[in-house]
Amino acid sequence: MSLEYFQPDAADQEVVAALERDGACVVLNQAPAETIDAVNADFRAPFDELGRLDEDDFSGYKTLRIAGILGISRAAADLVEHPPGCWLRPTRCCCVIARVTRSAV
Known about the structure:
Blueprint lengths: L4 E2 L5 H11 L3 E2 L5 H18 L18 H4 L1 H8 L15 E2 L7
């Protein structure tokens, strides 16, 4: 399954329709580049050190995982505490997956 991608100004109805149909979607550019760069920098060392500790046949071998991300990255905590503007629209569903990759983590 591939996810549908939306620009930040996409109509709420389109985003919600994709969520209902596919269970997830991506709304691009939901955080400033500086915030994304800070999150990437904060997570680089923990991903390198701990990211592969939970690999197994059930969880898989392609995804790096770390726990306690809000304690690792103030920038990530700020995103959770103060989501970007379009997430504050009352009809926008907060389970939209925001694409937070600017450079590979």
